[in-house]
From TrEMBL:
Matching Pfam families: N_methyl, SBP_bac_10
NCBIfam families in UniProt: IV_pilin_GFxxxE, pre_pil_HX9DG
Entries under InterPro entries matching the protein: DUF1559 (IPR011453), N_methyl_site (IPR012902), Pilin-like (IPR045584), Pre_pil_HX9DG_C (IPR027558)
Protein name per Swiss-Prot or TrEMBL: Prepilin-type N-terminal cleavage/methylation domain
All copies of domain DUF1559, residue ranges: 33-155
Source organism of the structure: Chthonomonas calidirosea (strain DSM 23976 / ICMP 18418 / T49)
Superkingdom field: Bacteria
Amino acid sequence: MVKRTRAFTLIELLVVIAIIAILAAILFPVFAQAREKARAIACLSNCRQIGLALSMYLQDWDEKFPQEHPTTSNPVVDDSQGQLETIDYGSPFDKILPYVSGHDSNKVGIYICPSDPDPHGQSLLDANGNCKNTDPPAPPPGALTSYVLNAYYLFGATLAQLPDPSRSIYISERRDTFCDVHYHPWLGEILAPNGPNDPINPIAIAYNRHNGGSNFVYADGHAKWHRFEDTIRPFEGHELYGEHQAF
């Protein structure tokens, strides 16, 4: 007697396929979120290493932040039109390279966020290394990376000037359309609303790169993930730009 095996019917196959499709639709977003969470953690680890390097630099340089432009105690007023920036001492990212065992900002892994689609700003630069969106075209003051410095600290600022360094942002994540190594809170580069329906629109900062927020390095060396809107809330002593205001 020949033993007959029962085959799947077409309906049963379609049901199995439908179940697999439903499970895939449920799980793929979960996998994507998990992958982005891992990238965000790697980026935060970079920020913590940069913060540690900054702390070591401050210890060696009498608590003076890496300087890029001529000294002023009030950059908001004295550099309101960028007039102090024609004299350039070089990117602070390069100045802390010895503390991260590096020699080239373009090649140091901690300066690259895994979620940044263009960490070196290649789409922003022309063949001569100039920013395409400047008139006339000019090069950035240093190699573009995934991170951007708060310009408050570039004019000879010291740790003693800061009343609340644990709430003062030193480094933010660079928006991949921003062609510079630092941003100016007083020149409107942290907030440029498109209108009442789009009030959060920073020019310089990748404000929602990691699950609705991004990573920041503070002047005391610690790093933390924040929603951007939390960082711009004014508080005592920082009435203008929130945590982006150093003093």
